[in-house]
Structures are given as structure tokens and as C-alpha cells.
Amino acid sequence: EKALQAKQQEAEKKMLDNFKQKIQKRIHEFIKDGTQEKLKLEPMDKVLRAIVHDVAEVAGLASFSFGLEEDDRYVMLWKKEFAPSDEELLAYRKGEEWDPEKNKELQRQREVEEQLEKDRKSNPYKDTPSSNYRDKYKHLIGDEAAKEAARGLVSNSQYGFVPSKNKQDSRTIEQVLADTRARKKQKVEHNPSQSSDTN
């Protein structure tokens, strides 16, 4: 049993050594090739990726692993002079292909937005709405409907238990006070016994 285990370990070690030699050869060819900036390797398991990272570090290359699942993770190598930007790394981490032209366009858009934001912050009082509210929502509120509805607006005849007609008082404060005094005076004249009890 121990002999079998030792054989398996020996076979695994030999396989890893062969893989390391192949990767060293492949990386050496990549470094000599002046036309290539980066090299994408096939998906491999964690141990093999670790070997690739070690060999790349010794060779002076930048190496990163990408992929969402463990089965499809792969290593990409860059020559030091063509090291990837943060945006490029982010794209690969998201599982997207990197397009330098698309990135330049996005960079220009960001610069324009930053400039607009800077202008907006420096001139806070020049902000004007881009459109008229009524024009924007004309399809919802219409042109004349709101005006006509406001003209035809009549209050409810009753709020709660008291009719609205009873709540409308057009007298001035002086008139209300005079009416109140007159009622009190009238009350006192009709019931003189109660007024003497309260005094």
C-alpha cells in the first residue's frame, strides 16, 4: 500500500515537473515573440495555476488568474511593459473580453461627464430645468383639463356632520363680537335669576 502511494506521488511529481518544463518553454517563446503583449493560457486546476504564477514571476511577467468557476479559471500573462490597466483587469474579472477601443470611448465619456459635473458645481445658480414641467407631462394632465377642473371646483356640501353652508361666515370679527354680546345680553334679560347666581 505504501509502495502504491509512493508510486502515485512519484508519478504526480513527474507530471508536475513535465508541466513546469512545458510552461517554461512556452513562456520563453512568448517573451522572445515581439508581436505578443499578452498570453492567455487554457483553463487549469489550482496547483497548475500556482506553477504558472511561479514561473511567470521568475521570468519577470505579470500574471493574473481569471474565471468565475474553479473549472474554467485560467491564467493570463503580460509582459512588464504592457502591464494591464485596472479597467482591463476588471473586465477580465467580470468574464468580459477586453476591447481597448471601447475603453478609450468610455474614458472620453467619463472625462466629459467629469467636466460637466465640475462646471455644474462651479455654477450652482445657473441650473435651469431642461424642460417645462407642463410640457413634459402634457400627455398625462392635458392642456385645458386642469384649468377647467379648477374653474368647476365646488366644495362638498357637507364635511362631517355640519353642512358646509353652516360653516361659511361672511361677517367681520367686529360683527361676530357684537352679535355674541347681543345674544348674551338677550339671554340675561330672559333669565335674570341665573345671571345673579353666577355673579
From TrEMBL:
It comes from the Eukaryota. It holds the Pfam family R3H. PROSITE patterns: R3H. Residues 93-139, 153-199 are annotated as: Disordered. One of its GO terms (molecular function) is nucleic acid binding. Residues 17-80 form the R3H domain. Residues 93-124 have a biased composition (Basic and acidic residues). Gene3D superfamilies: R3H-like domain. Coiled coil: none annotated. This is Sperm-associated antigen 7. It comes from Biomphalaria pfeifferi. The lineage of its organism: Eukaryota, Metazoa, Spiralia, Lophotrochozoa, Mollusca.
